[in-house]
Structure formats: C-alpha cells, structure tokens
Amino acid sequence: MSTKFDQELEYRLLRYAAIDSQSDEDSASSPSTEIQFDMLRLLQKELEEIGAKDIELTDYGVVLATIPGTVSGPTVGFLAHVDTAPQFNATGVKPRVIRGYNGGDISYPDAPDLVLSPEEFPYLADKIGQDIITASGTTLLGADDKAGVAIIMTAARHMIANPELPHGPIRIAFTPDEEIGRGVVSNLPKDFAVDFAYTFDGQAIGEIEFESFSADKAVVTITGVSIHPGLAHGKMVSAIHLASKIISTLPQATMTPDTTTDRDGFIHATEMAGDAAEMKIKFILRDFELDGLAAKGQLVSQVCATVQASEPRCEIMCAIEPQYRNMRYWLETDMAPVDLARQAAGELSVDPVSVPIRGGTDGSRLTEMGVPTPNLFTGMQNIHGPLEWISVQDMAIATDLCLTISRLAARPLK
Ligand SMILES: [Zn+2]
User: Fold this and answer.
1) How far apart are CA 337 and CA 331, in angstroms?
2) How far apart are CA 4 and CA 1, in angstroms?
3) What residues are annotated to the active site?
C-alpha cells in the first residue's frame, strides 16, 4: 500500500525527528530553547527551496510563509509546532522505519524490555502492511508535532509544484514552544493574517477537534518560620509539613488526571520544591467549562486558606493565572471551518470524529484571539514517550486532507 506522498513524508519526518528541538518550561527566553532555531531555520530554508513566498522567521520564533492563491477565496492557515515535549528524553532521537508492518509486537534496539504491542494499542493492529516509524527506545519520536510539519511541508510543496490545482491564498506557520503553552504570542494573529486556520496536531485518523480544555495554573507559595533546629522549640514552622498538608487535603481518589476521563476536569500537582523555610507547589487546573474550572481554583484556594488558618505564623499565597480556553466557546458560534474539514474528510472517505481534547493546542489560544483554529489528525500515537509511533500512510491521508481543505475553501460552503 502506498500513496504518492509516502516517500516524501517518510523522508521529511525522519529528518525532522532527528533534530533535537525540545522546549523547556523553566526557561524565560523566547523561544524557550535555542535549539528550536535548528528546526525553524531548516524550515525557512526548505520553504525557500520549494518556492513559497513571504518567508519570514519572526523575532518571536515563528516561521511564516505564503502559498499565493491560484483562485480567489478566504486565506486559510495551517500550523504545526516545531518543539517536542519536555516530559521525556528528546536528545539523540534515532527514528527508524518498520516497512510493511506484520501485525506483531514491535521491539526496540536501544531498550530490550520495551514492547509496542497491538494488543495494548489496538490502533496499531489496524496498520498491518503500512510503514511504521518509531524511535529507538530511549527517546520520544517527536511525531508530535514533526508529523504536522512534514504534512504541511509536503502539501505546500505539492501545491506550489502543481499551479493548476485550485486553492485560495494559504498561509503557513511553524511555531515554537507549543508544548509549554507559549507558542502563540500576541503578534501572531496579526502577522499570520488568515481568515481561519487549522493545527495539524491531532492523533488518530478522522480526528477533527474543536474542543480543548480550559486551563489555569496555580502556584502556591508557603513561607514557614525558619530557625536553627536546636533553638526551634515552639518557634519553627516547617513549610514542608504545610505543603504536604495541602497536598493530602486535596482530592486524591477523584479529580486527578489518573482518576478522570471524558469531560471531567482535574487538579494536577505538577511540581513541589523547596525547603523547610519555603515551599512552592505548582498545579495545573483543567476543565471543559469555565464554572468547573473556577470551582477547581476555588478548591485549591480554600485548602490553602484552611491550612493557613491552622497555622497563622506561616504565610500561604495562592496565585491562579489563566493559560488557555476551550476553543468551542468561539467555534460553536461559527462552525464553518469545522464543517469544511468534515466535508474534506468525507471526500477522502474518512469518518470525522470530534472528541474533546484533554489538553490544549496552539489553536486554543489562536481561537480565543480571534482566529478560528480547529485541530486535525496527523496519525501520531502514544505521544510524549518512548512508544510514540506513526504510520506513514496515515500521514499521507492527513496530507490529502490538507490539500482537500485548501481546494474546498476556495469555493463557497454548501
Ligand atoms: Zn503537539
């Protein structure tokens, strides 16, 4: 089984995945890591080679480009992010292709105990005969979101090389720092200048997503009373004990990432650090609805206030900040971009599925900022870990989806 895009997609993904472009939440710079420029500059050069126009690497680390329309129509944007997730080793990625997958367990050259099995991951069982790309066992693959980059680059090259294909103006954006929620800065909507857009950052074939979490973060700072332990009687207040009290008072058998699914949100303590004098706990708060999100913030604040009341000599501060919002709040008022993607999927005999994303995308922020941006499948699976994999043929379907959307957008919606 092969399509006209298989070779190019495989070649691109293997090349992009081998480049370390991991983002770093703890870095204050923008992009968060200098290494992301290795991907950004490569893409800038490749866009020049395929003949894209208006190519620009902005000072905030986004590569922008235009494919001029061959007919008139709204300007459609396609985005993918160049960074890979900070949650797992992304240095020294050695991608490899398993050609004509035989349906059995997949083992890894650099991690003998690691197994990717179709029993555990039934989506893999559907891919017999296809070409599967994985990492070597000690790193993630980075198909999230280099598959998106490869898909958009392949579709762009194809459109430019075939000027007889009808499509309106197309804009491309390759963003940094999506994985740490900093991919969309305030200038991007204006510089991108599109009527609507799509991220290629989804997973299983068919996924056309227009709902993401709404997200806040909370940082709790606990200041105890510090004194030499030999002189501490009746005086010391340990921030460590208070921090553990906060954690143990918050729900543990409910409302956590591992105990919730579907439409239920959670409170997740992502980091706790410090010493007896001062502790910091970082939380992420997630819910699909704003009232549910606010309730989670209130619960964290309330627990802090209760622990504070139990020990007036300490100081507990709880700072809650918005991160991104469910794009459904905006998209449901105009479903045209979602309907267009569904129509394109239909032409490719792909059944569109819209499940709420238990996370956010660059589209969450962009949509909130006025650029409707649903999320589309790439084929990537088991992201952010060593079992990450993707089928080349799935990526080819996503490439066809990109081309079909570009064609359909140039004429009025039915
Ligand atoms: Zn992603």
Assistant:
1) 8
2) 10
3) 83, 178
